[in-house]
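@channel sequence for tomorrow's demo:
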Amino acid sequence: MSPDLVIIGAGPAGMTAARIAAEGGLRVVLLDEQDRAGGQIYRNLGAAAGRDWLGPDYARGADLLRGLNHPGITHQPRATVWRVDAARGVIWSRDGESHVTAAPHVLIATGAQERPVPFPGWTLPGVMPAGAAQILMKQSGMVAQDAILAGAGPLLYLVAAQMIAAGSPPKALVETGTDLRHALAKLPRALPAAMTLAKGLGLIRRIHGIPRHHGARDFRAVALAGGRIGFGFTTRKGPQELDCGLLLTHLGVIPQTHLTRSMGLTHDYDVAQQAWRPRLDAWGGSSRRGVRVAGDGGGIGGADAARAQGALAALAILHDAGRLDLDERDRRARPLRRALARALSLRPFLDAAYPVPKAFLAPPDDTIICRCEEVTAGAVREAAACGAHGLRLMRTALRTGMGPCQGRMCEPTVTGLIAQTTGCAPSALGPGRIRTPVKPVTLAEIAALGRQPEETA
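C-alpha cells (generated this afternoon):
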C-alpha cells in the first residue's frame, strides 16, 4: 500500500512530523542515511548509553525516538535519497540497490551542514570540523585528544564543554571574535529565549581555565614531525604559534539545500546567515505543491525550532489530506508557533554576535578552495577576473563543485571570491544549479530504475 507521506531526514523535525502525521492516520515512510534515527543533533542516541558527558540536551531526543514506534511509521535507515522526481517520487538507494517511493506529500528535513572554514593548511590530515569531532563522540564514543578548537560560535563552547566532561579538555580555544556592538542591539529580541542564553553562559563558565585567544585572524596550519600540526594565527598581541595533534575548526552551520535546489524550488539569500534557503510559507510549504521543508534545511534555528516546524508541517499535511479541519489545525498550531517564535528569537543575536569573518569568505590566494579538484583561491580569482562571473562558468573553467562533494565544501567560498573580485552581491550569483544525483551513486543503481516497477514502502 502506498504511503501518504515521505519524510527525508530523521532528525528533530522529521521525527516530530512522522509521529504527528502517523497519529493523524497517515501512512509515513521515514528515510534517513544513518543506521539509527536522530539526525546530527541526536545522532546515535539510542546506542549511546553511559555517555552522560554529552549533556542533557542530547538526551532530550529520547522522546522523539520512542515516538517512531507507531505502527503507521516505516523507518528506512541507511537510505540515501539522491533525487526527488515530480513524476515518479522519491528515489533512494541502500546497499547498492535503488528504490522509488511515491506519495502525495513529501517533507524534506535534511538539516544543516557545517560552513567550510578555508585557510592555508585546512586540508592537512588532523584538521577537521568541530562538528565531525562531535559526530565521533556520539557515534563511537571517541573523544578528541590534544586538540585545539578554532573559529567562532556556540558549538565551539559545547564541544569544549563535552571534551572537558569526558576528561579530555582542549589545549586552547582560538576565537575569531564576537561583534557585541551589533549583537547587543538585538539582545532585547532574544529575551524570550533567556533560558537558552543562560545555557550558553553556563557553557562558557565550564571552559574556565582553558587558554583562550580572542580576535584571531590569518589562520595557517602546517604539518610538523610526528604527525603534529603547527597552527599559526594573529591577535592584537601579534603573531601566535601553537602545536597540537588535532585542529578542530568551526564557523557556524548553513542549510543543506542540494536536494531542494535540485528540485527547482525557489530559494532566497539569507544575508544574516550568508547562505541560501528555500522560500517557505508559515507551514513549511515550498514553491512546489505537496513539498514542504522543516528544520535547519529551511533556515538555521536549532533543535527546538526544528521540532516546532516539523509539527507545523505535519498539521498542514494532515489538513491537506482531509484528516484535520481548519479550526483544529490552527488550534493545535498556536502553542507550536509560540515555541517556534521563542526558539527563533535568539537567532538574530547569534548571527550578529558570531559573524563570519570576510577572510574566510575570500581567503588568501594559496588556500585550496575546492578540495576535490585542488583548486586554489588564486585560481578562482584569476578565472573571475577573466570573465567567470558565476558558479556555472567557474565549473566550466576550473571544475569547482564537480567533485564527489558536489560543491558542498567549496561553493560558499567560490561565491565569496567571485563577489569580491567582481563587486557583485552574493545574492546575485546564485543559487547554483544542482543536478541529480545529489549523492554519489553507481551507474547500476541509476540503470536499475529503468527496468523495475515503481515501489511502495
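heads up for whoever presents: The chain has a mean pLDDT of 93.
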